[in-house]
Amino acid sequence: MNATSIPTSPTATTFQRMSTKRVLGAYVAEARGECLRYMRNPGFMLPIILFPTMFYMLFGIVMGKSEGADAARYLLASYGVFGVMSPGLFGFGVSLALERDGGLLTYKRALPMPPGAYLLGKMLMAMLAAALVIVLLLVMGVFLAHVALTVQQAAGLLLTGMLGVLPFCALGMLIGTLIKGQGAPGMLNLVYLPMSFLSGLWIPMQMLPKVLQQVAPIWPSYHLHQVALEAIGVNHDGIGMHVLVLGGFAVVFFAIAARRLRRYG
Fold first, then answer.
1. Rounded CA gap, 70 and 76, in Å?
2. Number of domains the chain contains
3. What pTM, to 2 d.p., does this model score?
4. DSSP 187-247
5. Domain encompassing residue 115
6. Which of 4-8, 25-29, 243-247 has the lowest average pLDDT?
7. How far is CA 160 from CA 54, 80, 252, 253, in A?
8. Which of 188, 180, 181, 173 is nearest to 262 (CA)?
């Protein structure tokens, strides 16, 4: 009996590569979807906006009048960093933990889109939320606390907030891969609030005990605070080392979190 060969169609054994236009379209669509999803969620946006602005109104404007403009300027940077940390930690950490538990990540992996589009969308969402917080604080600082800022200083603080959220996105992403969804908010608050205090965001670093001042550089929020103070003209010690440390935090946390996502989903 002669062997019969069955021809196979080239399309049955090869996969068509997505064009560059479709890849970019997937990134844009995912980023747009993530930003709209969170911006339309008052349970996410209101705490992020209200906490730093409320604290700045109380301590930087109302109670800070007796301390002069320098206190309002210092607290503008402090509560700016405090507000920037929140969308990075909670926008990544809580949502990632919940979406892992609900199987959304497994579903997204089956979709014909680049794997990085999901994470890029969350990063852009966090950057936009951080920008909104900084803009609101700048408006309050200039028009209510009468803090004198140049355009360059205001732009520097805005840029600091938008880029400074990335290390906290990485930290939130890592925590989101380690814990279950229901425990994520409590665990992130255990990181968020003590780290804010120990970085000199609530009380100036000089007023903290000596031992806490010595260990402060282990927190990314401390380094972002120094960059923010430099941006508005409070510090003049240079930001090169602080920027490098923040970049190192972001790279290390993202690398560990990405490895965990690949292995454990």
1. 10
2. 1
3. 0.87
4. HHHHHHHHHHHHTTSSS-GGGS-HHHHHHGGGSHHHHHHHHHHHHTTS--S-SHHHHHHHH
5. 20-264
6. 4-8
7. 21, 9, 20, 19
8. 173
